[in-house]
Structure formats: structure tokens, C-alpha cells
């Protein structure tokens, strides 16, 4: 959905033509896989971080147009809500000092952007869900002014035929109805991209699926929504419901959702793109003039724009990506599991844990997905979203265990092995994985800190609920700017 879409209405003929083009794209993609036309594997990663904007009271600031004009940096882009922006970190190397370099680059970019955003009366916060976002802020005119978001909103609601019902049972209970997709804008995430070869892709995707629950457990950072304390990673349930195009009847029939964990391990990246075309009608049926088969016949690289656009409207937690850079095609696993924040160093530590663990599991002679049912991986994912750092998960050879114990005893050594295989500098490896270790030892991540600090101000203090959320977020923002890992943040 990062590309511009100019159309505002679609006809039946548009949808028929788009379906035909997607199938022709699939034929071309299958041929490219057979003919080994892809770039070789390199230890490259890119990162996208979605950000929230707040005003001087730490309430949402609906100023992304003004903020982006002030920042004047193409790395920063609009996101769904006017209180969101996104930074796209240029691709970089994982090996050597690459992760250190990436951390420094992100911090420099965010610090420079923060200084410029301040001119508009705004400040940036890196958090999974903005704690001070309330139902009164979720209105249609809160969508970003880019036409593609209004178009996406209209197409989702045309498919649904009714308002969105958001129902989440956690520490407290939330029942909300929305007449737009603006609630989806509350979900701000970190996305890790990992470039892999076609042959390696299924191993890395399966590994990423297998560890998604553990990633959420140690990285949860979204305990509040619309003033209520819900799940430790409320963002998962919110996104699943806010972007759902199905009516109640279609859900009952078992029609697959567009925000999807999946249903099976794969043996080829083609499986995922083929599922997309088979299960999901087009939301944005915009066709190009390209004939991908003709492009291949003359020795060039097709854009496969219809395949990519369709893929961008299906929100797998681990998504396949086809892209073309300098006329050379490549493939990436896009890991969309984690929330934004709490700090840049926490984000890079989450990345190091992910990169190391998927590498070790992908290289294993007896892969984890041959010992674990897909449904167990999905259950881990939703258990971790609910319980965060306190979650229990299933792991082959261990059974059901606290996620923190599993990480300390089994998974951190695997992550060390994987980062060594990538060629990551030992000091960088130990510093970043040490942050994950300390989170597990202290039992503190972003979600638990937010909840503890809120209760200090609200339950045990004299603050009202809104003021407690604002006060908590103000302290959160201060610690975020210090770039101190969240396990070291005090609650006092």
C-alpha cells in the first residue's frame, strides 16, 4: 500500500482485468523462480518504524502534513492517521558493525526530525499504541490526506457492508463501533525486512512464524487502547478486527481474514502469493500496461505491480515481498509482528534477536516446523499477545514453559549462533542480546512498564485516568529520548 493509487471508483470490468493480471503475474513469477533470476542472498535488512505524534499535553497531534513539511526528509512518510508518520530506514548490512551503524543512523534521523517537529508544536513517540488515544479521536477526518487511505477505507467498508465492531477482553473490556478504518491507525509497528534467496525463503518464513509468539512475549508494548488496559499487545487484536472485511456470516463460514497468521507451513514462496490470489478478492484493482511474460521474453525484469499491490492489502504477520532494485529482482521476509518502541536500542535488540534466531532455525538440519504443529505456533502468538512477558508458550522438546525461561535457556544461545553465522561483531552481538536477556531476567518490557507506571499514578496515586495516562506517556517519552533500554526504566 506504499504506492500511489489515483482511482476513486472501480467497475466490474476493473476487477475482472485485475484478477487476470494477477494470474499472469503469478505465471511470470513461477517462471522467474524456475529460471533462477533472483539476486543472491546478502545479509541485508531494512527497517520501517511507525511513529505517533503528540501535542504539549501528550494527546494525539493531528499534524502529520505539517510535521513532514518541517522534517523535509524523504525517509519520513505519511501513515494511515494524521497522528502517524513512518520512517523507512535504508537497507543495511547485518554483518560486522552493521546493527550498531543502523542504530546510530536511526537515532540521528529521529533526533533531527524531533527538533523540526517541535516547530509545529508536535513531538514524536515510538510506541505500539498511543496510550492517550481515545474514542473521540477516531473519526473519519482523522485519516491522512493522501487519497489512497480514503480509497482503502471506502473499499474495506464496501466489502464489509457494515461498521467495524471492536471487542477486546483483557484486564478491562472494550466494546467500540467505528465507521472508518481509523482505529487501525492506532496500531504502530516495527517491520524488519530480511533479504533471502527463493530457495531459503520457506525456511526463513517458517522459522519466523515459529518464533512470532516469543517475539511478542519479550517485545510487547501496547497495553492500552482508548483509555482501557487490555492485552499486553493489544495491537494484534485491534489490527485483526479493524482491517477485517468480513461480515459476521462470512466469519462463521470460515472465510479467511485479511489480517492473517496463516494456516500451514510452506515449501515455496509461491505458496503464499498463490494463496493471496485464490482466497482474497482485490481491494484496489488497479492494473498496469505491463505484460510480464513479454518483459521476461526480452530479458528484462517485470515489476509485477498487480501482484505486489494485491499482496500489500493482505496483512500477514510475516509477509512475502517481491521487489526490484536496480533492475534486479529480490525476495524478502517482512516481519510485522512487533510494536514500535520503546527505544531505538530496544528496537535494534529485538532485530538482533529475530535475525539471529531465524538464521539458526533456518540452518537447522531438523527444522523446528517439522516438530511443531502450525496451530501450536499460532496459539503461542495469541497467548503472547494476551500475556506479554508473563506468557507461556509451547516449544518442542520443552513442552509448555514461560517464554522468558525458554528464551534464557534455549533461544538466546540459538540467536548467538545465528548472529555468528551472519558475521555480526561479537561485541555488538553481546550488547544487543544482553538487552533481551535482561528483559527476561527482570520481567520488564514496554507493556509491563506502561502498566506499572499507570497504576502507580492512577490506582495508587491521586491522578484521574486521563491524567495518569498522560503522565505515564510523558515519562515514557523522556526515557525514550534517553535511549535507555526499557528493562532499566524505573517505576517510582
From TrEMBL:
One GO MF annotation is:
ligase activity, forming carbon-nitrogen bonds
Q: Which Pfam families match?
A: GCS2
Q: Which UniProt keywords apply?
A: Ligase
Q: Which InterPro entries match?
A: GCL_type2/YbdK_subfam, GCS2, Gln_synth/guanido_kin_cat_dom, UCP012666
The organism's superkingdom is given as Bacteria
Reaction(s) catalysed by this chain's protein = L-cysteine + L-glutamate + ATP = gamma-L-glutamyl-L-cysteine + ADP + phosphate + H(+)
Listed transmembrane segments = none
Which PANTHER family does this UniProt record tie to the protein?
CONSERVED PROTEIN, GLUTAMATE--CYSTEINE LIGASE 2-RELATED
List the protein's name. Answer: Gamma-glutamyl:cysteine ligase YbdK (ATP-grasp superfamily)
